[in-house]
Structure formats: C-alpha cells, structure tokens
Amino acid sequence: MDAAFDIFTAFALQLFIIVDPLAGLPVFLAITPDNTRQERQTMAIRGCLVAFVVLVFFILFGRFVMTYFGIETPAIRICGGLLLFVISLEMLYGRPTGTGTSRREERIAETKEDISITPLAFPLLAGPGAIATCLIFAEHARTAESFLALLFGNAVVFVVTCLLLLRADTLLRLLGALGTAIVTRLMGLILAFLSVQYVIDGIRGAFAL
Fold first, then answer.
1. Buried-exposed string 95-127: b where 16+ CB fall within 10 A, e elsewhere
2. Closest Cα to residue 162, out of 46, 53, 57?
3. What is the pTM of this model?
4. What are the sequence ranges of the domains in the chain?
C-alpha cells in the first residue's frame, strides 16, 4: 500500500507539473475569445476528459507499444528525460513549451467553434511531455495496485486541471502575469532535476552501471 501511495504522489505531482494548467490558462482564454463562459466550461470539461483517456491508454498499453517497436526501458528513460529537460528549460525561461500549442495552432484555434479536442486536449494538456511521463512511470509499475495508483493520479490531475480551467478568468485576475510566471519557473526547476535523474537512471540501466 505504501509503495502504491508513493507512486501515486510522485506521478501526480510530476504530471501536474508537465500539464502545467496555470500556464495554460491564458492560452485557453486566448483561443476562446468569442465563446461564452458556458461554452468555455463545456470545452474545458470535454478537453480534460479526452486528455485523461489519452494518457490512460499510454499508462495501460504504452509498454506493449514500446515492446512492439523494440524500444527498451533505458531508451524510454533517456529519451523521456531529455524531452522533459527541454520542456523544463522553456518553463524556466517563461517561454511557451514547444510541445504545447504553437502560435499558428493558436491562431487556427481562434477560428474554431470547438477547441476541446485540438489543441486543448492534445497537445496542450496531453502532449508529448505528459505521454513520456506516463511511459516512464508505467515501466516501473508491476502490480495491479501500482497501475491503479497511476490511473488515480491521472484522474486527480485532470480533475484539478478542469477546475482551474473552469475558473480561468478569475484565477488570472488573482494571480496576474507575475504570479503565473513565478509558479511556472518553480515547476520548471523541479522538472529539470527530475529529468536529469531519468537520464542518469537510463544510462545506468543501458550500461548496467
């Protein structure tokens, strides 16, 4: 039980950092300029649900997909660590992450009536960084309890994310641009430490160090 709880807390915290809903709040509002509050809330709920389902797939079946392509655990850790490190640097410098929505995607989204699937669910919420995190943790899962812990952690993250998106306009007024930037940079620093550790673990596994 303690091991499952440890997996849940570690996964939920890291996934929340990767999803980074606070940094996504201004993007969400920017790509829904002509939508009513009710329409935004509907798209937020649908987008979080779709993102949750996407990550459930990679938690449960990601290992089989990797095995099919002959990708071993050390490669997942090294590649995932490098990807997360790049994301952490962008967060530290306060730039939109390249694995999220691009400016072109945001401009296209502004003309769409429903942005809940793209770009909200993917790649803004369930982007490559979140998928890599799920693959890394799924490699550690060996029991039914650990997989349940990952699924529950995934659910908690997207429930919290959904609640934040539902109050996006209010939260942005409270936090302001400076508050959002500070939180994002702190999360980026923590993510940088974690990503380097993943690379170290991957190298150790690859060369049996």
1. ebbebbbeeebbeebeeeeebbebbbbbbbbbb
2. 46
3. 0.84
4. 2-207
Tokens found for residue 14: 């890291």
137: its two tokens: 């943790």
DSSP state of 123: I
Calpha distance 128→190 (Å, rounded):
18
Give the ranges where 102-167 is alpha helix by DSSP (H).
103-110, 128-140, 144-166
**DSSP string covering 7-72:** HHHHHHHHHHHHH-HHHHHHHHHHT-TT--HHHHHHHHHHHHHHHHHHHHHHHHHHHHHHHHTT--
Q: Counting Cβ atoms within 10 Å, is residue 181 exposed (0-12), middle (13-18) or buried (19+)?
A: middle
* pLDDT by residue, tens only, the chain of 209 residues: 568 899 999 999 999 999 989 888 888 888 887 888 899 999 999 999 999 999 999 999 998 988 888 888 888 889 888 988 988 888 888 765 555 555 555 555 555 567 888 888 988 899 888 999 999 999 888 899 999 999 999 999 999 999 999 999 888 888 877 787 888 888 888 889 989 998 998 899 888 75
| Integer CA distances (angstroms), 185 to 6, 74, 132, 189, 205, in order | 25, 28, 20, 6, 30
